[in-house]
Amino acid sequence: MSFFAHHPIMLVAVPLAFAAVCPLLGLWRRDLCYWWALLGAAATSFCAWALVGSARAGVAVAYDLGDWPPPWGIRLRIDRPALMVACAVTSAVLLMMVYSYRRSSCAGGAARRPGVYSCTLMLLGTAGALGVISSGDLFNMLLFVQVTGVAAAGFVAARGGSRAARAAFGYLVALTGSAVMFLLATGLLYSVTGALDMKKISLQLQVLKQGYVPVAVVSLVVSVLALAVPSALFPASWWLADAATASEEPAGALLAGTVVSVCCFTFFRVLYSVFSPGLSKVETARSMTANTLAWVGMAAFVFGAVTALFQDDLERIAARCSISQAGLVVTGIAATSHRALAGGLLAVVSGVVGISCMFLSASALTHGCDVCGVRDLRGMGRRRPVAASAFALASLSLVGVPFTIGFTAKWELAGGLLDRGWYVPVLLLFLGSAAALLCLGRVVYLLFAKAEAECAGRPPLAMSAVSLAFGLGAVALGALGHVLTTWLLEAIRPLLTW
Which H or E run includes 76? Predict the structure, then answer.
């Protein structure tokens, strides 16, 4: 077997290996840990992008650990949707690592880089996120969700202080409850199918005895409820605002932009790989659950956008936008339509890019300044134009302005909802977008209004440049929107053909 045949497992093994070595390296030379983590993030990104040519429509790149096929072994499956999200996640983490290299605003300009634990936890969280994306085993996906969540909670607490500790603890409590529920759902499903591999479970559900169908239905409902917590799906999103704003800048971006988006992707696995459309035994229950989930997702989209209007802190606005974006993703995935599903998957990428950009640019705008609220940022865009431009580009994408990835996602989602005759959700989509426009438009207006903000110095180049790279990425992906949509639809059509 050639080296390239091991790329699927390398996607998870590389960041895990770098994360394991990082603390040991810190015992010898702490200043080398950052460069080691940066190398690990770059290697992981290479492993993801190297798989692009291997992804064919309707065919997943499969890898059996130890050459043991299911049900005895664990299989990784990387299809086009998973590969798209993996490329977005690894690129975002690489940029976040670059962002973390900066000069402090303290006297003397001493070098300030993330510590050993922060580097280790970022790599560990990346490995967990990629494991969630590529896992073809239901229990294995649960384990990787927990790895990602625990790493993110540790990253939040790494800032120190009682506020960060409380936020991390609250997140861990929510994550633990979610894990118990999902473990229960997995156990119920295993009891009636005798399998943990997603494809095998789907085949067994097709020939399930009638007496076991209620158990499978309960498993479906419980698993959806469990996944709502790490996905920050309203009303199970109570933990996100505190956790994302109590941490340092890269941690908030990683949690709200990457971890939440990846956990939303698990709904795609449950609804299309496990309880796939067309299973006659559970189709009615699946349809009712998916439709309910779509309506809840649209309610979350509107709720996040409307509540963002009443926030006076940039990071809390970004956190509310993350809740809104999670609802958008879940609606697209649950709507069970070709175009809606494509829109939901594109919204995952839009969330990784847009929400991360908002957190990072917000930090660059307030770096070294005594800022209490949005009003204190009036005119800051004239003093820090690069960071302000990045925030503006992220806002345009999340609102859904043409030529951004956010617009492509919403356009496809709206088309898919209209194909199903769901006119009210389309109106809610416009309502939530209008609320986001009012909220983010006000912030952008204040940033570029007549200068009143007084703040000495400028943010480090790495902070501003990386924030702008995220913003330009949202525009570049929007320019490639038609290509991405076509590429996705080729992979989605077999999932909805029955």
Answer: strand 75-78
Reported as a single tens digit per residue, the pLDDT across 182-237 is 999 999 998 888 888 888 888 888 877 787 888 888 999 999 999 988 888 888 87
> Alpha-carbon distance 63 to 58, whole Å?
16
| Cα three-residue angle 62-66-71, rounded to 5 degrees | 70
366 and 271 Cβ atoms separated by less than 8 Å: no
- Polymer length in residues for the chain: 498
For residue 252, what pLDDT is reported? 79
In this structure, the dihedral spanned by the alpha carbons of residues 230, 470, 82 and 10, taken in order and rounded to 10 degrees, is: -100
Q: Is the pLDDT of residue 110 over 50?
A: no
Q: Output the CA torsion 279→280→282→283 (10° steps).
A: 80
Nearest-10 crossing angle of helices 260-269, 138-157: 170
Tell me how far apart the alpha carbons of residues 240 and 246 are, in angstroms, rounded to a whole number. Answer: 10
Closest to 364 in 3D by CA, of 458, 471, 256: 458
Contact yes or no for 266/228 (Cβ under 8 A): no
The answer to whether 170 and 240 have CB atoms below 8 angstroms apart is no
Calpha distance 152→478 (Å, rounded): 29
Exposed / middle / buried, residue 98 (Cβ in 10 Å: 0-12, 13-18, 19+): middle
- Residue 36 near residue 18 (C-beta atoms within 8 A): yes
Q: Which residues, 6 or more positions from 56, have their beta carbon under 8 angstroms from its beta carbon?
A: none
Yes or no: say if 86 and 130 are a contact pair by the CB < 8 Å rule. Answer: yes
Give the contacts of 101 (CB within 8 A, at least 6 positions apart). Answer: 34, 38, 113, 462
Residue 123 CA neighbour count, 13 Å, CB half: 30
Of 127-131, 168-172, 250-254, the range with the highest mean pLDDT is 127-131
pLDDT in tens, 130-188: 999 988 888 888 888 888 888 888 878 776 677 778 888 888 888 888 899 999 999 99
Residue 318 has which token pair? 């970004």
Q: Tokens in use for 35?
A: 């460069």
Model pTM?
0.89
What stretches of 207-259 show up as alpha helix (H) in DSSP? 213-227, 240-245, 249-253
Q: Token digits for 426? A: 């389309």
The pLDDT, as a whole number, for residue 184 is 92
d(CA 51, CA 454): 48
Question: What is the DSSP annotation of 146-162?
Answer: HHHHHHHHHHHHTT-SH
